[in-house]
Design goal:
This protein has a two-stranded antiparallel sheet. With 89 residues, the protein is mainly alpha-helical. The chain is built from 4 helices and 2 strands. It has a domain of 61 residues.
Length: 89
């Protein structure tokens, strides 16, 4: 990870925000991230999106056999996803 003096790059901040979802970061990382978020609206938006996804994932709780089974998508949905993935390469 490269730092320009005391600042993290956006790429560093996004990785650290994701990492912070799993473990507590060192104080100086949290401080640098907070300072970056005050100046970068894009990283601040990314943080809000991560927090929203975490909240939403906690709302959805599989029950019974469905909790162990893989989610089966409709055929047309699978085909659309495959087409999008092929187009992105």
């Amino acid at each position: 990870m490269q730092m320009r003096h005391w600042m993290f790059r956006c790429q560093d901040v996004s990785a650290k925000l994701s990492e912070a979802m799993d473990r507590k970061l060192p104080f100086h990382h949290r401080l640098f991230i907070r300072m970056h978020l005050m100046m970068c609206k894009y990283c601040a938006q990314f943080r809000r999106q991560l927090l929203m996804l975490r909240q939403l994932s906690r709302l959805v709780e599989p029950v019974g056999e469905a909790a162990d089974a893989a989610v089966e998508l409709p055929l047309d949905t699978r085909d659309r996803i495959k087409a999008l993935l092929r187009g992105s390469h």
